[in-house]
Amino acid sequence: MDELLSAAERDAYRVLVRLGAADAAQLAATMSVPPATVSAVLAALRRKGLVSTGPQVRPLAPDVALGDALLRRQEMLDDARRTVAALSEDYRRHSRRRDADHLVEVIVGRDALRGRLREMQDTARTEILWFCRANPLAMAGPENTEEDSALARGVRYRAIYERELLERPGELPSILQSMAAGEEARTLPTLPVRLAIADRELAICPLVPDEARGFGEPTAALIRSSELLDALAALFESFWERATPLRADGGPADELGEADTLLLSLVVSGLPDKSIATHLGVSKRTVQRRLDRLMTLAGVDTRTGLAFQAASRGWLSDDRSPGPASHAGIGPAAHVSAPPSAPSRRVPPSPRRGWR
């Protein structure tokens, strides 16, 4: 409040709130200050929308009067944070021209890793790429508010999720919520590594394998523009092309509704019927009946045939994807198999977004 109101303005407003209404003379007498001073303070409060006009002055609600000013200051702080982060990255980018050691930086500890992941998203201009594995490492999903603000700025998010992550209770609705905000999502049975790439200029990936994570703090490499970064970006694109798109927005020409498109995405991704039924809030028999109807629509009598027809007809294709991946659909038929009939393994819920 110090930058919004001076000390004299705060004191006058508080006295006026206690009095309910007063003219300049009454307020000056109550505060024991010269009338000229009170008149100047009241004029300032009127300009800020905190008091009424007229001889008898009444206080007005401060949250309404100062709300816009607070919002503007918050936006200025956010802009300042992004500016500092961008300048810091610009400094490091130019420094590495003088010192090759800056091409790869080792990050030690969860707090440091969280900070770099947030900074990476805050400064992203065009695109963020994610490999999202099933177990969290440094930052839980609810902590990662940076994705929402980046999507709002027009930054493109592409994420590939491990199948096990989709089977966890509460995970799929969170993914669908991000997809509704603009995230493009696909899935594969397994991913080789955790990975985050921003604008193809910066990448973060862990240095310690999962089986060794019980020893000490997590460590990761921050990799700047280099052939190593280019290789990691190519790795992402190769997995993206093979991955099964997750969709819930209806198929081409309205052949499929949103519910059928989501069901088909989960089936092709390899989730078992019981797990799909749990996610959709229906019975396993209802899932099977809806799959039978989709097979009839596709003119086939097996799930493998349904997956092939879904690829041929573009039911799961993601037209937003550039390059070869835009025509990948559900990927080559060799990557598609009918989901297992065994029930899904129940695991405790974990946050989705953030560092995987």
Q: Could you characterize the architecture of this molecule?
A:
With 356 residues, this protein is of the alpha+beta class. It has helices at residues 7-19, 24-31, 35-47, 62-98, 110-123, 146-153, 163-166, 171-181, 227-242, 258-269, 273-280, 284-298, 303-313; strands spanning 104-108, 127-132, 156-162, 184-188, 195-198, 202-206, 219-224, 244-245. The protein has an eight-stranded mixed β-sheet, with helices on both faces. The longest helix has 37 residues, at 62-98. The chain is elongated, with a radius of gyration of 28 Å.
Task: Tag the structure with descriptive keywords.
single chain; 356 residues; 8-stranded mixed β-sheet; 8 strands
Summarize, please.
By secondary structure, the protein is of the alpha+beta class. It has helices spanning 7-19, 24-31, 35-47, 62-98, 110-123, 146-153, 163-166, 171-181, 227-242, 258-269, 273-280, 284-298, 303-313, and strands at 104-108, 127-132, 156-162, 184-188, 195-198, 202-206, 219-224, 244-245.
The biggest sheet, with number of strands, parallel, antiparallel or mixed sense and barrel status, is: 8 strands, mixed
**Roughly how many Å is the radius of gyration?**
28 Å
Q: Percent of residues in beta strands? A: 5-15%
- The mean pLDDT is 78
Helix proportion range: 40-55%
Quaternary structure of the protein = single chain
Tell me the number of strands.
8
Strand order of the largest sheet: 1-7-6-5-2-3-4-8
Poorly predicted runs are 320-353
Outline type: elongated
- By secondary-structure content and strand pairing, the structural class works out as alpha+beta
Distance between the termini: 40 Å
**Number of continuous helical runs:** 13
* Order of secondary-structure elements: HHHHEHEHEHHEEEEHEHHHH
